[in-house]
Design brief:
The protein is of the alpha+beta class. It has one domain. Helix content is about 20%, strand content about 25%. It has helices spanning about 40-50, 75-85, and strands at about 5-10, 30-35, 65. A 3-stranded antiparallel beta sheet has the order 2-1-3. It is flat.
Length: about 90
């Protein structure tokens, strides 16, 4: 049975939009990509075959999470803070 995976890494850094700092603003994970396979290893191989540029990156350690479905829900952090009274 084919399963869909999201591949992530905790390597690298990210800056908030409009940041002027030379220091990273937030610790996070970065999405490397998505792939489908019978096993996570099959999906990882397909990920690299379909995204050959990954060989040129400095990412080394990635991990996968199997996705239950393709449904997405979008959440606004600003809206949550406004409802809770925080800024």
């Amino acid at each position: 049975m084919m399963r869909k995976y999201i591949f992530l890494t905790t390597e690298g850094t990210t800056f908030q939009p409009d940041s002027t700092s030379s220091e990273p603003d937030i610790e996070n994970m970065q999405v490397i990509g998505f792939a489908i396979g019978n096993t996570v290893k099959d999906a990882a191989i397909k990920l690299t075959e379909q995204n050959e540029y990954l060989a040129e990156t400095t990412f080394d350690e990635i991990f996968a999470i199997q996705l239950a479905d393709d449904n997405r829900e979008y959440i606004s952090l600003r809206e949550i803070f406004q409802r809770s009274g925080g800024d």
